[in-house]
Fold these 2 entries.
Entry 1:
Amino acid sequence: MIRIALPASLFILAACAPAAETPPQGPGEQPAAYMALGTEPGWTLEITPSRLNYDGDYGETKIMVPNPGAKPSFNGERYVTDRLTVDITHSECSDGMSDRRYRDTVTVVADGKTVKGCGGKILPPTELAGTNWSFVSIGGTPVAGDRPTSLQFDGNRLSGSAGCNRFSGSYAVDGGTLKAGPLMATEMACPGMKLEQAFFKLMATPVSLTFADDGTLILTGSEGRTAVLRRAI
């Protein structure tokens, strides 16, 4: 199997920002919720500018407390309240249930019980080979949830469906650019094929690869057309 590595520049972690009293955010952005999660037992944590919301033990334990503000800690931040203590360390983390990777390692002490997990930005995969995706939108138009879609990368070939016909072809990555094809597709007729046709047009020329903080994959063509895909784990 040929494994095509993505350029290293896509995976360099951002430098650690100074501790702040709200979850990390970019210049000019509105404060956003910081999310963390763990398994065995399953738990989630949401940090908003005003509150810490913790669901533990697969939802049986719920703790909601005011956000006390982050204090600097070794390579990260710390939140301390009477019921919750949260330590965020900027160290790459795997959730243990998939190959999804996160920017941060997170430790939570909830009413004296310690759990560990991951949080923050979802990191891009180290390579496309072996990853599966589903379509969120094509050309800015949302893809209907009742139309199964997929895009799989297997070795040096890709395959999938944009809502109607199955397609497949070769692909290569060079400097953050994905070049596919020529793509071969079945010839079924389906309602609402405009999105599928828009995707085939997009992939007829090289597209740029970018990854959003939530892990979504964005394919952008030379004319600014995009396809947005969500990782299928």
Entry 2:
Amino acid sequence: MEIIRALPELRQASARLRAGGRRLALVPTMGALHQGHIALVRAGRGAADAVAVSIFVNPLQFGPNEDLSRYPRDEAGDLRKLREAGCDLVWMPEIATMYPPGAASTIEVGGPAEGFEGEARPGHFRGVATVCTKLFCQTQADVAVFGEKDWQQLQVIRRVVADLDLPLAILPHETVREEDGLACSSRNIRLTPEQRAQAPLLPQRMRSALTRIASGEPPGPVLTEAVSDLTAAGFAPDYLALVEPETLRPWQSGPGRLLAAARLGDVRLLDNMALD
């Protein structure tokens, strides 16, 4: 497994891995890897001949009052997990490599970036779109693997790739969950033991709401009740909304996606589930 921190070396390594028509998969991450990330690496292995993983805590997608300095970091543990998973290349750039002095270009996204996380975290998707586009160009990957847990982010990346005619495929992977149903996230380690025991209530209430909606109950009252239940249990919900899967516009009929964001203590939990 190659560990690369400089852009010229990355370009050389990417060329070697892609020589002879071989395909390269990229898994963009911010580190603090968990079983969900490793599942993405394995999916990349199934879709390409070699797998690269980027580890970069992207300051551009954090707001002034967000947890950039507190974001979990575990370089040694991350590298050990990636070796065990059969990763071929790890791209670990410094901030100055990604955003050198004088850098003045970013990517602004509308459409699926509007509302929800885009509203709660102004500028967040500008940072996500910019860093992902740079990673795609730097690695020259043929396919990039993203988890469905960050559903809105997945739709934003798909939109950017389509709108900018970027020459790679986006491969989604279903949300990986803990045994109790909580979606895997690097931020989960910041939950206290009491909060960690309470956290699975979020996916439980989401599943219950979807079951009732699928049986014909109107979404509005069902979701209002779910928000009230979560609030009474100690959560601070930001939103619980049923939307069209790709556009994220309010759901009317057919397939849908239930999006959720709720704080538990100082940890913000994200989740989503399909309405089939």
